[in-house]
Amino acid sequence: MAAVDRPDDAAAVAAYLERSRAALSAAIADPAFVAMVAQIAGRIADALDGGNKLLVAGNGGSAADAQHIAGEFLSRLAYDRAPLPAIALTADGSVLTAIGNDYGFEQVFVRQVLGLGRAGDILLALSTSGLSRNICAAVAAARRAGIFAIGLTGRSGGELSVLCDLCLLAPSDETPIVQQLHLTAAHIACALVEARLFPRG
After folding, report:
1. Distance in angstroms (rounded) separating the CA atoms of residues 116 and 95
2. What whole-number distance in Å separates Cα of residue 62 and Cα of residue 72?
3. What is the arithmetic mean of pLDDT over 173-185?
4. Residues 6+ apart with CB under 8 A from 184
5. What is the CA 146 to chain-centroid distance, rounded?
6. What is the pTM of this model?
7. DSSP state of 106
């Protein structure tokens, strides 16, 4: 079947790209956003350099982003180097369903944080709204256990921005664009950590 030209579709694509560009431009122009990404990278680098690990959690698209981020740290981002200890708390279906079934969905990350995390580790918690109950509960549990909590959320910050030790607010209220900025910030942070811990001559 031949493709049909749909001018409205092209306009929708262009409009989305414009909103995406506007959010990225707003992030670039915001010194607080830029400084927060650098500060997050520094805290992760300090923790990993000290023998601690990175735990990453999120729901839905942010769950996929959590796995993506953990993969960049554990494998590599820009060049070959030793693996860095990073665990996505979203990846084990048996664990997620066991905890969800036995304790409720709100506890799916709390139980993993308490079982896998140790004082000095980092929890990187992603929630575009800042209101995800299981994410907020995990952050609260992490901080009680001496685990440093970093949040990535949207413009409003939600409850997450109050609970975390550090929190990056993406300058958008649109979930897909917030997630784009989270992944961009995570890539930058990973690159900074990589360069600091494994400098190339």
Report:
1. 12
2. 15
3. 98
4. 24, 27
5. 19
6. 0.95
7. G
